Amino acid sequence: MPGKRDGKTGLCRRQESVQTMDRPASGGRNGRVTIREVAEDAGVSVAAVSKVLRDAYGVSDVMEAKVRASIAKLDYRPHTAARAMRGQTYTIGVLLADVKNPFFPQVIDGIDDGLAGTQYVPFFGIGHGSTSMEKAIVHAMVDRQMDGLIMIGQRMTDAEVEATARQAAITVIGHHAPQATLFDSANNDDERGGTLVVEHLIAQGYKRPAMITLRRADLGQADVSQRREAGFVSGMRAAGFDDSAIRIAAAADDIDDVTATVRMLLEGPNPPDAIFGWADYYALEVLSAVRALGLRVPEDIGVIGYDNSPPCAYTQNDLTSIDQSGREIGRNAARLMLERIAGRKTAEHFVVQPRVAVRNSTALRNS
């Protein structure tokens, strides 16, 4: 069922998770099933139902089964406002930088995995690359007393994230902050991934790799493209290239600008024979631009991306990409979030190792 958007904040919610059932036959106010009705149906006390809802210690399996059966039968939903008064709403805010990046659904699937079997429900907000929009969404989430926030590729500064972390548990994805103590992070080793790109291209016979990265003005606080650049430079140096031969071109977060940047590289002097797009949604546009110029992939030029998002495997793309285990990152972000909510104070910064997912866009070349 599609979610609804709050026009003022951009905050999205899953409709089925928050809608209130109209039950004219119920004795509850506004027809809403009450905790007392659940207790009566299950033949237990209101306190027993409350314990089950809170996953409290000391509830027998038999009692929990009876209460859960009555909750399902009556379609009971705990009152969020009442829960907030008791200090917990069982809601998690998820802030997305945008909806263009095909990698994000993998992370969201992982977050869903991590919250499965719990009472927590995710609410989504889209920042659209705007710091002011992100702040409005975050403030809305905090004001609604969400128990924690997962930020994916946020533009907000560490100081702003830390200020929010004093009010709710925070996990960031797409920003490396190993020194942070007030919030957690879940990432892959982006610098190692950039180096893997070079190692793979050189092993395949490419001799003049170049990289297209995210323009600095579009970075915000997320630093993954910078770390991938650093890994690319490190890999090129290790392969024997001097700095004058290392080409990294920046493009705005816009398809037309990526296309123009590809043309600039390929129509200039000493054009590259392989291009690394810092993320798959850049690399996919590189594929289109290269073919529009009448060049063949991989015979004339190799193309490699980063994320190993689903479109890479489509036949028309067949795009080699660095797999950063997005679902595992999302799953661990949810784990870190739940641990923080449960009382963990020491920061944890989870990092998964990337690998090359090889496809035909970087097939072995004849030397």
Describe this structure in words.
- The protein has 367 residues and is an alpha/beta fold.
- It has 2 domains: 4-13 and 86-188 and 327-352, Response regulator (Rossmann fold, 3-Layer(aba) Sandwich), CATH 3.40.50; 190-325 and 355-362, 3-Layer(aba) Sandwich (Rossmann fold), CATH 3.40.50.2300.
- Helices cover 39% and strands 17% of the residues.
- The chain has 13 helices and 14 strands.
- Strands 1-2-4-3-5-6-7-13 form an 8-stranded mixed sheet, with helices on both faces. The protein has a 6-stranded mixed sheet with strand order 9-8-10-11-12-14, with helices on both faces.
- A hairpin with a 5-residue loop joins strand 1 and strand 2.
- The radius of gyration is 24 Å and the shape is elongated.
- 41% of the residues are buried.
